[in-house]
Amino acid sequence: MAKFLPQIIIFSILSFAAINLVSAESDGYARTLDRKLFGLKKKEKLTHFQLYWHDIYSGTHPTAVAVVSPPSNSSGTLFGAISMIDDPLTEGPELSSKLIGKAQGFYGSAAQEKAGLLMVMNFVFMEGKYNGSTITILGRNKVFSDIREMPVIGGSGLFRFSRGYVQARTHKFDTKTGDATIQYNVYVLHY
Ligand SMILES: *[C@@H]1O[C@H](CO)[C@@H](O)[C@H](O)[C@H]1NC(C)=O
Ligand SMILES: *[C@@H]1O[C@H](CO)[C@@H](O)[C@H](O)[C@H]1NC(C)=O
């Protein structure tokens, strides 16, 4: 037994060190992890995507549906209206151009004086190396401004720990149907 003692001591020290690498601090259910193990010591990348977002109310396959009607339009901004969306995101402005992903979520009129939407949506990528990864956009959309900026508040897959912003510009809007094509420029920091 005694002759194994040094090995036991060395093993204990090593395993203690290994545990220490993972959990510098532990509090039962919570522990501090080594950032390196999550790739967080790498330099963050800044990626730009230019996509077109198609909100389609017309026809037999709408991608946007009004799920809540406002009790009245006395505000003039349809305050309280909510639409659920599963909007195609394409490479070019034409709906027939390459499908890159979907914008899934909802938006609602959150302003009573000047038109302003609360946008809550995930851009779900379906193409190339980003396939399956998502980014989450949550922000205020002043629809009648030329450029609307909204924050990217996080993501999944290749966009874990991401942050950034988007700029939206109206490319086409049909006042009769409500159909819209919006250009989205996405700037996202991720590892
Ligand atoms: C709501 O009111 C505004 C301002 O009066 C008007 O421009 C808009 O067309 C109305 N919307 C609906 C759906 O009635
Ligand atoms: C994206 O991933 C899904 C699920 O893994 C797969 O079915 C699909 O073929 C992929 N699409 C592309 C364009 O790679």
TrEMBL record:
UniProt xrefs under Pfam families: Dirigent (PF03018)
- Output the Gene Ontology cellular-component terms: apoplast
State if GTP-binding is listed as a keyword: no
Q: Which residues form the signal peptide?
A: 1-24
What does the UniProt record say this protein does?
Dirigent proteins impart stereoselectivity on the phenoxy radical-coupling reaction, yielding optically active lignans from two molecules of coniferyl alcohol in the biosynthesis of lignans, flavonolignans, and alkaloids and thus plays a central role in plant secondary metabolism.
PANTHER family, per this entry?
A: NUCLEOPORIN-RELATED
Subunit info?
A: Homodimer.
Q: What name appears for this protein in its UniProt entry?
A: Dirigent protein
